[in-house]
Design a protein that fits this description.
Isopropylmalate Dehydrogenase, 12 strands, twelve-stranded mixed β-sheet, 2 domains
């Protein structure tokens, strides 16, 4: 049997705890794999009551206990305790979130859990307790012995997969950050991951241009001819099915999407705007290039609606399902 998934609780003042319970409540109709929450069983119980769910909680001491109780209760591995204060983040909550992330990552690395699903955190709160990483992605990569530069963020939904080459940086800095090697490396990692974890034998990569009309022969910028096109040529020389640079404004309609498996984009919003327009409630943040599987719901802590019962569970369900599918493929490969 594939080991269960480890779901880190995220910031306990956010929507993570209640969405974990809401996902468990529909585990049968959604055919979700075994999973357990890493956090605080008492806090999750309080979140369950706040959302008005009928979800029993079962404290477990190790992942190998999850299968025995999953049908009747949501398993929670206690690594700390804290009162449930939805919408009121604090340093103690950030500490619990970080400890849960560390513990869950360790369990997946050891093989006790088959994949890591991370709940949303508040980066500003983590920074207050000494967290020096830009986000959970970089932390998990470092814990796995992978350079953060080789951890690639992919956003995936039913309609579209996208990879931004540059992520959380100012738009004015993007042209200076783009290099032939950066594009080639991240696109190659993406192709390998799609083959290994998604069962796509020969992934098709559509590489977006940086500028309008992909530069239009230099009239709208030289980066597409000087940086993007040589990177695509190197990918093709390596046997990867890549095309580009393509005009970004014509890449995301239905007919165009049918021609590729992933869109390689040059900056954050070029990738995330079409993904969220098409798959807002089913988008999953996946980290490629790691020795473990890591997914996350594609939304933040949503402190403003935590505890109100209005947060949508779709992204959490999608992140759990995708992690389980990828874990199964790795186990069977």
């Amino acid at each position: 049997m594939t080991p269960p998934l480890a779901l880190s609780i995220g910031d306990p003042a956010g929507v993570g705890p209640e969405l974990a319970a809401a996902a468990w409540a529909v585990r049968k109709t959604e055919r979700l794999p075994l999973f357990f929450v890493v956090g605080s069983s008492r806090l999750v119980e309080q979140a369950v009551r706040a959302r008005g769910l009928n979800v029993p909680v079962c404290a477990v001491k190790a992942p190998d206990e999850v299968a025995d109780c999953f049908d009747g209760a949501l398993p929670v591995l206690d690594i700390g305790d804290l009162a449930y204060t939805p919408g009121e983040p604090c340093d103690a909550g950030a500490t619990l979130a970080l400890n849960a992330l560390s513990a869950a990552t360790g369990l997946v690395r050891s093989g006790a859990a088959s994949a890591l699903v991370t709940g949303p955190v508040a980066k500003s709160r983590l920074a207050r307790i000494g967290f020096t990483y830009p986000g959970q992605t970089e932390y998990v990569a470092q814990a796995c012995g992978i350079s953060p530069e080789n951890a690639v963020m992919m956003l995936a939904g039913p309609s579209l997969r996208v990879v931004p080459i540059t992520v959380h940086v100012s738009l004015r800095d993007v042209p200076d950050l783009l290099t032939v090697e950066l594009i080639r490396n991240r696109a190659a990692i993406t192709a390998a991951a799609l083959s290994r974890d998604y069962g796509i034998v020969r992934p098709r990569l559509a590489v977006a241009g940086l500028n309008p009309h992909a530069g239009e022969d230099g009239r709208m910028g030289h980066e597409d001819a000087d940086i993007v096109a040589p990177a695509v040529a190197l990918l093709r020389e390596a046997g990867i099915d890549a095309v580009g640079p393509l005009p970004p404004d014509t890449m995301f309609h239905a007919e165009a999407r049918a021609g590729y498996d992933v869109a390689i984009c040059m900056y954050h919003d070029q990738a995330l705007i079409p993904l969220k327009a098409l798959d807002f409630d089913a988008g999953v943040n996946v980290t490629l290039g790691l020795p473990i599987i890591r997914t996350s719901p594609d939304h933040g802590t949503a402190f403003g609606i935590a505890g109100t019962g209005t947060a949508r569970v779709g992204p959490t369900i999608a992140a759990l399902r995708m992690a389980g599918e990828c874990a199964t493929r790795r186990m069977n490969s």
